[in-house]
Amino acid sequence: MLPIVHTMPRELAIFGVLLPTILPLFLLSLVLQGALDWLLGRFGLYRHLWHPALVRLCLLVCIFGALIGALYA
Length: 73
Fold this sequence. Notes:
Order of helices and strands: EEHH
Strand order of the largest sheet: 1-2
Structural class: mainly alpha
Number of domains: 1
Helix content: 55-70%
Distance between the termini: 20 Å
Number of strands: 2
Radius of gyration: 17 Å
Shape: elongated
């Protein structure tokens, strides 16, 4: 018996426009990272970090990777 291989769809049709499937996930990760960034700034957690911009970038990469992993696992 052959193993089941899940492949990522190459394009997503939105209103007749073909978009790469990673683009909506990236936009969603930007929105989620913005909300999380606002919460961290609101509670003052960035004062305890060495490099807040690096933490923001790492959060974006982690959220984006988690969305891709959850969708295409």
